[in-house]
Specification:
mainly beta, Porin, 5-stranded mixed sheet, transmembrane, membrane, Surface antigen-like protein, BamA/TamA_POTRA, Bac_surfAg_D15
Length: about 475
């Protein structure tokens, strides 16, 4: 029996592909698929991501290509630190497939300690580094309930925003693993509330007695259909109820638009996602497309009646092992003339960012943003720290560092031409600069960027997620 190295190991540093074409059969059949290393994850969850089938004949080059694609799909489950698929030659045209995985740590008690603001720059500059804007609490996250890739999240949070949430996501409810369900319920209160924006910056307000200014309750049910490997369909139905204190209207009479301090409505939405990235948390190759249509207000008594359309399309092109290009186009549009302030969108609200405008919000009914990065891989290292860490799930510590040259641009249409925000609305905006992206354990991303915007304002920014 011969072992053939055909591809890189996903989740570790790159390895050289062994050139042994002279030993390869022209055409092979797969007799068996063996999976090792899955101590908790069910075999069928892994096999769901594998396109290769037993009893099928494959041309050798086709086999290699499919193995590489299957490795990416299994790794993108986000259940494993490492995935390797190896063909074992057992005869002149016979092979076995060995799928080797190293599992992650699935049950994670989270300590919540984060900022309530949109980004670190907003907190540091606009909010004067106020510690009152820090959220703290705890959350229990299980990313692989029963070994079936089910997600459970229960959490409570205090501080600037007080929250209780519960989420349960079951990706497959049928034997063919095509249909799934998820439920989510959230409750939160705020004593300090963004009530409006002025000069394209957020304006917050709190009452003298620090009473609660906003209470929000929401519940959602989502149905998922995955008919193929890379295409997902979601239908979401839900209910949202928001109460605000009357004091808020003294700061912004148009916070709600229906003459009441209670906003209630049902929602129904459809989302299509095509996702063929090599790494969904920090991609260097592939593409992703998201299309969404949301209806706010299903019944005559609902306090909101509007439609929202959203599109995100990102393309990741690898030029060589060191260099890749990323380009992403995002678009959002409401049909209504004006929305309640809780539904306001625009540049500065996730995911519609232009680098260089991290301190600003540019609000309106239509938003379009085009982001671009040229990234050069400076480092690609990995360390086995098993002698110092008793858990196998944390024994391998990867470090990847990229230098990026960035250019983003976009436009926000505000039909209402709000005078205090006209400095940046209804005009072409752009930002450019350089950055360093650090990708490490569990694909966590840390970004350091210096950017200059179209107003010639330059600043250094820190971020803790991939830009797109």
């Amino acid at each position: 029996m011969s072992l053939i190295t055909v591809s890189n190991v996903y989740g570790q540093e790159n390895e050289t592909v062994t050139d042994i074409l002279s030993q390869n059969p022209d055409r092979v059949v797969i007799n068996n698929i063996f999976i090792i290393g899955n101590k908790k994850t069910k075999k069928n969850i892994i096999l769901r991501e594998i396109d290769l089938q037993t009893g099928m004949y494959y041309e050798w080059e086709e086999l290699i290509s499919l193995i590489q694609e299957d490795q990416k799909k299994v790794y993108n489950l986000q259940l494993f630190n490492k995935v390797e698929i190896t063909p074992l030659i057992t005869g002149s045209d016979q092979i076995e497939l060995l799928v080797s995985v190293t599992e992650r740590w699935y049950i994670i008690p989270n300590v919540i300690l984060n900022l309530a603001d949109r980004n670190l720059a907003e907190w540091w500059t606009n909010q004067n580094r106020s510690l009152s804007r820090v959220n703290y609490g705890g959350r229990l996250v299980h990313n692989n309930v029963g070994g079936r890739n089910e997600k459970l999240r229960i959490g409570g949070q205090m501080g600037f925003i007080r929250t209780f949430e519960v989420l349960y996501n079951k990706p497959y409810i049928d034997k063919k693993q095509k249909h799934g369900l998820a439920v989510q319920a959230t409750y939160f209160t705020q004593r300090n509330l963004q009530v409006r924006s002025s000069d394209n910056r957020q304006v917050f307000y709190s009452s003298e007695d620090e009473s609660v200014l906003r209470r929000n309750r929401s519940a959602y049910l989502r149905y998922t259909y995955r008919g193929s490997f890379y295409n997902f369909h979601y239908v979401t139905a839900g209910y949202n109820s928001t109460w605000i204190d009357d004091e808020v209207f003294t700061q912004n009479p148009d916070f709600f638009l229906h003459g009441s301090n209670s906003l209630q409505y049902f929602v129904l939405g459809y989302n299509y996602r095509h996702d063929k990235r090599d790494n969904i948390l920090y991609a260097t190759q592939g593409q992703v497309l998201n299309l969404s249509l949301m209806r706010y207000g299903l019944f005559g008594g609902d306090d909101v009646q509007d439609w929202e359309f959203t599109m995100n399309a990102n393309k990741y092109t690898k030029i060589n092992e060191k260099l890749h290009v990323v380009s992403g186009l995002s678009f959002n549009a409401f049909l209504g003339q004006r929305q309640p302030f809780t539904l306001v969108r625009g540049i500065g609200y996730n995911p519609y960012f232009i680098r260089g405008y991290e301190l600003n919000v540019v609000e309106g009914q239509q938003t379009i943003v085009h982001k671009n990065s040229l990234r050069f891989k400076i480092l690609d290292l990995g360390y086995n720290i098993g002698d110092y860490v008793p858990l196998e799930e944390f024994a391998y510590f990867p470090i990847k560092l990229y230098l990026s040259g960035n250019f983003d641009h976009g436009y926000v249409t505000d039909r209402n031409n709000i005078p205090e925000n006209m400095r940046l609305t209804n005009q072409y905006l752009f930002g450019y600069g350089l950055g360093l992206d650090l990708v490490t354990l569990y694909d966590m991303v840390f970004r350091m960027e210096y950017s200059i915007n179209s107003q010639n304002d330059g600043a250094f920014f820190l971020n803790i997620r991939a830009p797109f």
